[in-house]
Design goal:
The protein has helices spanning about 50-55, 115-125; strands at about 5-10, 15, 20-25, 35-45, 50, 60-70, 75-80, 85-90, 95-105. The chain is mainly beta. It has a domain at about 5-110. Strands 1, 2, 3, 4, 5, 6 and 9 form a seven-stranded antiparallel beta sheet that branches. The protein is flat and about 90 Å long. It starts with a strand and ends in a 44-residue tail after the last helix. The mean pLDDT is about 85.
Length: about 170
């Protein structure tokens, strides 16, 4: 089963992963030690799975090992003979994850249902009697007076060139 691998997508990039492998990804919003599920784009076991319906059954689980920053990258812009120079740099925010589980389930996993419990609790509380809402009155329109438009000064004629009006 050493041929089992998956192509996962994270942060707009795709990575080939196997079980037990560590991987550097763009920063994930998970704390260290937390488990995260990565979205599979392709899965290979005894056969290759690329169908979207079948990929929902693929489970790629990883544990966040640490958050770190990448090496400093310097960007230098220069235009010859123009006196233009700009130096800029950045460090990428990264997350190291370890692939803990890579398998194809027999059926699609059930969706998590945490919201219906909150709704059930809300329904059991007695609601206080509410007063009937009064209709809001439309706001009265303000009478606006417009000032007459200012007159624009008359356009001046362009000056004629000297010597052009000479008839000789």
């Amino acid at each position: 089963m050493a041929d089992t691998y998956a192509i996962v997508e994270s942060g707009g990039k795709q990575y080939k992963v196997e079980k037990g492998e560590t991987l550097l990804l763009d920063r994930l919003p998970a704390k260290e030690g937390e488990k995260v599920d990565l979205r599979a784009v392709m899965f290979r076991d005894s056969d290759v799975v690329t169908d979207a319906g079948e990929l929902e059954k693929v489970k790629v689980e990883a544990t966040v090992a640490e958050h770190l920053r990448g090496p400093k990258i310097k960007v230098f812009k220069y235009k010859a003979k123009k006196g233009y120079k700009r130096t800029q740099g950045h460090r990428s925010e990264l997350t190291r994850v370890e692939i803990t589980d890579l398998k194809k389930l027999s059926r699609k996993p059930a969706a998590k249902k945490s919201e219906p419990k909150a709704e059930a609790k809300a329904e059991t509380k007695p609601k206080p009697a509410a007063k009937p809402a009064a209709k809001p009155k439309p706001a009265a329109k303000k009478a606006t007076t417009r000032k007459p438009a200012a007159k624009k000064p008359a356009a001046r004629k362009p000056a004629t060139k000297k010597g052009a009006s000479d008839g000789s």
